[in-house]
Structure formats: structure tokens, C-alpha cells
Specification:
- By secondary structure, the protein is an alpha/beta fold.
- Helix 1 packs antiparallel against helix 11 and helix 2 packs antiparallel against helix 3.
- The longest helix has 34 residues.
- It is flat.
- 38% of the residues are buried.
Length: 538
């Protein structure tokens, strides 16, 4: 979302919220005024309703900038709560004193007609994209690398040595210098004269200690050798440049207040964080399955349950057992330290925007990193064989219970042994990483890719029939086949794969499902390779 569009939506949301806030404040004041004019004391039920209404205002008004009203309503709600907890029903004249305090808070609200002009916003420059300059005199290599990095979400411009002034004016986040065509003697002096240089990555000819040591001494933060491998450069940039991860963090927001949840959504979006809002607690489990978040923001006071109960319900499913939960704590819940027993953190309402972003980034990044290194194959970044096996058992049991179609595919690179023999294991590893990257980019987010063995990958496709799975893998096969990769400067080498597809939901066991795709992959190899066999190809 562009910054200008986000600002427009935030301002429209503020107008919508203030309109609701006017109505809520007037309704609460009218109720307090009516109780203060009686001859007898108000009932506990009436006081409970007033307390909840005022606490709701206190929890949300500060997030939209109305701190005085939030503080006033919070103090009055706290006073009413103390009366209720102590079994005291206040006299009418006591409630009249509360009325004057609420009137003061209401006076802090802006006039709706003047709101747009009073809160004009200024568009800011979008800095989400990471800019990479490619410096070299070999056009084919520059173009191949530029296309690969652009596909991963980077903004790439190519330059030759006599264009370095234009390169410096562009102010990239990183520069990748191709030493295969631009020797170090041509660029080292220029680089050392740059007062505030970006990150330097070097693509060199020599894969030895001396070459790497020399690159480090000239300021390199990354060193790469043929064949060109965009995935390795991507990992290096992810480490060097904050926010360079192509896939944004995902946050599930469970909050029944529509305006407040939309405010959280827009604030997170402004920080480059994706989010999914659930206003009805019963829809949370479906949202978890479809969205698969890195973190959940959960209101502590939902209409049908508490925040802790919601977290425990989510964690009944082993898939979400380790999902970080950050509570949006209202009223006295802020002081309930026991909340952290089933969640990682809590933020007191009204939630400060900067605190929201900082807390989400801290916990979500840590959770994603932990999952990545514990269950991910070091070379390809996809699931390890052990993690894949555990996931297959979970999805098999779920498919058996629900009856929903779930499919498996076994994919193996053709002639990977010959590739290693003729071009070296570095080329073979590169092609394996390339296929893993291609699968994770082209499949749905709810699909899972795991390293099976060597150049083979197993793909799990929930909520997908074997026929649809075969079509999806066939589409990926054609796209992968159309790519040509430069291998060790010996020319272009086309790479293909074969695959077998079967349903997991109708198999008697996980082992039977794996055996089915293994047999179909074997027949695809015998039939000439570079093809996908499924149910209709027996």
C-alpha cells in the first residue's frame, strides 16, 4: 500500500471513529445523568454497563490521539469498578460529580466538520524497496542476475564503470561488483573515495581463501563465485539491509472493535507488516489455517471469551502451539502478569503506535527465525525431511477427520548426477536451490515444500484435489523448463524435473501416500523424464 493511500485511509478511519466516539460518549453521559437525577441508587447491572462502555472508550480513544478523553474515561471506569467490587451502590449526587468529569473529557473531542482540515497529513517517501546496483561490463551476466534479483522483490539498476557517477547519484542500498569483467584495480580507488558507501558485494573468479581475504580488506560484505545464485545473494542482503526480506511478517489481529482493529492494521502496514483482522472470535481458527501468521495480537476482552481462553483454544492445535501471542490488555488486565503464562507479551490500551510496531517486530522476527533454523534445510531453506514427516502426519490426520482433499507431489531434478559430473557439485547445488526457490515462490502460501533427498522435493498441498495439484505442478514444470541458467561460463544449460502426484486424503496412511507418488515419479522417469504423472496416468 502506498504511503499516500495509507494516510488517506487512516484519516478516513479517524473521522469514522470520532463520529462513533461522539455517539458513545453522549450515550454514556446520558446514562450517568439519568442515574444521577433519581431518588434511589443505581443498580449494579446499570453500573456494570456504564463501566464497560467507559472502559471501551478508554481502550480505543488514545490510539486515535485523544489521550485526555481516554484518561478521563479510564479513571471514571476505574472508580465505578471499585464501587462494584466493594459492593457499594453510589448515591445519585456522587454520580453527578462523575458527570462533570465526563463532560470535561467530551469537550476535548474535535468538531466533525473541522476534522479533515485540522488533521491534514503529509505523504512520506516509501523506503520499503531495497535498491541494488549491478556494476560490470558483461551484459549477459548483469541481465541474468538483475532479472533474478528483481523477481525476488529488489529494485535493480545495471551500470558500467564509466557510469559510476550515475550509480552514486542513485544511492543504492548495496552494490554488486562483477570482478569477472571489472578487475579490482579499476574499482577499488573509486570505492575507497566514496564517503558513505552502501554495502559492497563482490562476484569473483577465484573460489579460494586469498580472493576472499582480499575482498574483505577492500570492504566487501559478501563474496560469490560462479554459477550465479540469486538465492545466496538474497540471504546476504536480508542480513545486511533491514527490511529486505521479500516476504513481509504476518500478524493476525483478533479484536472485536472494527475501527480499532483497522487502525492497528494500517499502522502495521505502514511499517511493512502484513495483517489479517478478525472481529468475530469464532472465525479465528479458520483465519489461522488460511493465513498462517507469524504472531497473533489478541484483545483480552472479547465478546464470547477472554484473551487467554482464545490463546489456549488456538494452542489446542499443535500447529499453533508455539505461535507468539501479544495481548492487547484493557483496564485492570494490564496489571495481570499471569497473562504472560500463555503469551509472550502484552500492550496496555490505548496502544501506542510505536510500541505496537516495535513489539510485533521483535517477537515475530524472533519466532520466524527460530522456525526457520529449527525446521529448515540449511542449503535450500525448505522444510527438513524430519519436519516434513511430522507435518505430513498432522495434515493426514486433519484430512481424515474433515474429509477435505489434500495432495502430495514428489519432484526430482532430471539428470542431476550428470550435472554434478560435468559441471561440478557447485552447479548441482545451485540448481537444487533454484528449484526450491521456484517452488516456494509459485505455490500457495498454505502449501509446504520439504527436502526429500538429494535433488528431490516433496510438496504438500492442503485443500487441493490431486487433479488441481497435478495442474499446479505441471505449470511450475513448464516455467522451470523455460528458464536457462548460466553454468560456470560454459554456456546455457536447460534444467528439467519429473514429478508424481497423488491424494493423501484417500490413502490408508502417510507411507501409502508417499509410496504412490514415488511410484508415479519412477514411471515419469521411465517415460522419458520432464513430465508430471497423476491419478489419470496409470
Amino acid at each position: 500500500m502506498q504511503e499516500s493511500e495509507r494516510s488517506r485511509r487512516l484519516e478516513a478511519l479517524r473521522v469514522q471513529y470520532v463520529e462513533r466516539l461522539h455517539n458513545d460518549v453522549q450515550a454514556a453521559m446520558a446514562q450517568v445523568e439519568e442515574m444521577s437525577t433519581r431518588d434511589n441508587a443505581a443498580s449494579a447491572v446499570e453500573l456494570e454497563a456504564v463501566c464497560e462502555a467507559l472502559q471501551r472508550i478508554a481502550d480505543s480513544a488514545g490510539s486515535f490521539g485523544y489521550d485526555a478523553l481516554s484518561e478521563t474515561c479510564g479513571e471514571v471506569a476505574c472508580q465505578v469498578r471499585q464501587w462494584l467490587d466493594g459492593g457499594v451502590l453510589p448515591a445519585p449526587y456522587t454520580l453527578a460529580a462523575l458527570q462533570s468529569r465526563l463532560q470535561y473529557g467530551a469537550e476535548q473531542l474535535p468538531n466533525l466538520d473541522d476534522l479533515l482540515s485540522a488533521h491534514a497529513t503529509t505523504a512520506q517517501r516509501d523506503t520499503a524497496s531495497v535498491r541494488v546496483a549491478l556494476l560490470g561490463d558483461e551484459p549477459l551476466r548483469r541481465r541474468a542476475l538483475g532479472e533474478a534479483l528483481s523477481a525476488l522483490g529488489y529494485v535493480c539498476h545495471a551500470y558500467v564503470m564509466h557510469d559510476v557517477d550515475a550509480l552514486m547519484a542513485w544511492q543504492p542500498d548495496a552494490v554488486l561488483i562483477d570482478e569477472c569483467s571489472v578487475p579490482r584495480s579499476r574499482w577499488s580507488a573509486w570505492w575507497s573515495a566514496w564517503q558513505s558507501p552502501p554495502h559492497l558485494l563482490v562476484f569473483g573468479d577465484e573460489d579460494d581463501f586469498a580472493a576472499r581475504l582480499s575482498a574483505i580488506r577492500h570492504g566487501a560484505a559478501g563474496y560469490f563465485v560462479p554459477p550465479l545464485d540469486a538465492s545466496l545473494i538474497d540471504r546476504c542482503l536480508e542480513r545486511l539491509v533491514p527490511g529486505s526480506t521479500p516476504e513481509p511478517l504476518r500478524v493476525l489481529i483478533v479484536e472485536d472493535d472494527a475501527e480499532l482493529s483497522e487502525h492497528y492494521h494500517l499502522v502495521l502496514d505502514g511499517a511493512g507488516i502484513d495483517s489479517w483482522v478478525v472481529n468475530v472470535p469464532a472465525e479465528t481458527l479458520a483465519a489461522l489455517r488460511d493465513y498462517r501468521p507469524d504472531l497473533a495480537l489478541v484483545d483480552t476482552r472479547l465478546p464470547t471469551c477472554t484473551g487467554r481462553e482464545m490463546a489456549n483454544v488456538m494452542r489446542l492445535d499443535d500447529t499453533w502451539r508455539d505461535l507468539p501471542v501479544v495481548y492487547l490488555a484493557a483496564g485492570d488486565d494490564v496489571r495481570d502478569q499471569a497473562l504472560t503464562r500463555s503469551g509472550d507479551a502484552f500492550l496496555g490500551k490505548p496502544v501506542d503506535d510505536d510500541a505496537l510496531v516495535a513489539t510485533v517486530l521483535s517477537h515475530a522476527h524472533r519466532a520466524r527465525s527460530s522456525r526457520r533454523w529449527v525446521a529448515r534445510d540449511g542449503m535450500t531453506g525448505v522444510l527438513t525431511h524430519a519436519a516434513l514427516q511430522e507435518l505430513l502426519e498432522v495434515e493426514f490426520a486433519r484430512a481424515q477427520r474433515s474429509g477435505t482433499p489434500t495432495s502430495l507431489a514428489l519432484i526430482d531434478i532430471d539428470h542431476v548426477g550428470a550435472l554434478n559430473a560435468h559441471h561440478g557439485h557447485a552447479s548441482g547445488d545451485y540448481v537444487i536451490r533454484l528449484l526450491a526457490e521456484h517452488l516456494t515462490q509459485q505455490l500457495r502460501f498454505i502449501d509446504h515444500v520439504g527436502r526429500y533427498a538429494g535433488g528431490a522435493f516433496c510438496v504438500l498441498l492442503p485443500h487441493c484435489s490431486p487433479e488441481d495439484a497435478q495442474h499446479a505442478i505441471e505449470r511450475i514444470r513448464l516455467q522451470f523448463q523455460s528458464q536457462t541458467q548460466m553454468i560456470n561460463d560454459r554456456g546455457d544449460l536447460g534444467v528439467t524435473f519429473s514429478a508424481g502426484v497423488a491424494g493423501l486424503h484417500d490413502a490408508p496412511s502417510v507411507e501409502a501416500g508417499l509410496d504412490a507418488i514415488d511410484q508415479r515419479l519412477y514411471r515419469a522417469k521411465l517415460a522419458g523424464r520432464n513430465r508430471v504423472l497423476g491419478n489419470g496416468d496409470e
